[in-house]
Amino acid sequence: MKDLLKSIVISIGMALAIFSFVGIVFDVMGDGVYTLEDYRYTKMVIASVIVGLGFGVPSMIYKSDKIPTPVKVLIHMGIGCIIYTIVAFSVGWLGGAASLTQGILIACIQLAVAFIIWFCFMRYYRKEAKEMNDKINSMK
Q1: What's the CA gap between 41 and 38, in Å, rounded?
Q2: How high is the pLDDT of residue 126?
Q3: Per-residue model confidence as pLDDT tens digits over 7-22
Q4: Count of Cβ atoms closer than 10 Å to residue 31 Cβ
Q5: How far apart (Å, rounded) are the C-alpha atoms in residues 11 and 5?
Q6: What's the DSSP call for residue 98?
Q7: What pLDDT was estimated at residue 70?
Q8: Which is higher by pLDDT, 26 or 50?
């Protein structure tokens, strides 16, 4: 339970940080004219929290030793990306005024960001496991 809560807090925090960064980029690109009406900002913040949960909760699959790692990655990223896509269309991050090419490009960039974050966590935990194994081996 403690691991699940930690994962949820980290993933929601990352989702909100990315949302904030992207908001800054759009504000700067729009020369300070970035207007959100009809509770759109609130909807996007809630959407960011849902995306964080969509990637954070399924990450608990990595605790299982019975499932091969590629299947774990497929389950984790599959659930996260499906939730992201549904949420992104519902709040207007994807679709809307963008052309099909722009939509595909945006989706590819967002999927690449998800996999980059996953890859960074994977590298971190591998390094941590190696250090623990080295320490255990040195104690023998």
Answers
A1: 8
A2: 87
A3: 889 899 989 999 899 8
A4: 7
A5: 10
A6: S
A7: 85
A8: 50
**Helix H or strand E encompassing 55:** helix 40-56
Residue 99 region by backbone torsions, left for phi larger than 0, else alpha for psi between -120 and 50, else beta: beta
Nearest to 110 by CA among 98, 122, 128: 98
> Which DSSP symbol is given to 31?
T
Q: What is the pLDDT of residue 46?
A: 95
**Residue ranges per structural domain of the chain:** 2-139
What pLDDT sits at residue 97? 65
For residues 80 and 13, give the distance between their C-alpha atoms in angstroms, rounded to a whole number. Answer: 15
Q: Which two tokens stand for residue 15?
A: 């989702």
User: At 19, which helix (H) or strand (E)?
Assistant: helix 2-29
Q: Which residues of 94-128 are buried (b: 16+ CB within 10 A; e: fewer)?
A: beeeeeeeebeeebeebeeebeebbeeeeeeeeee
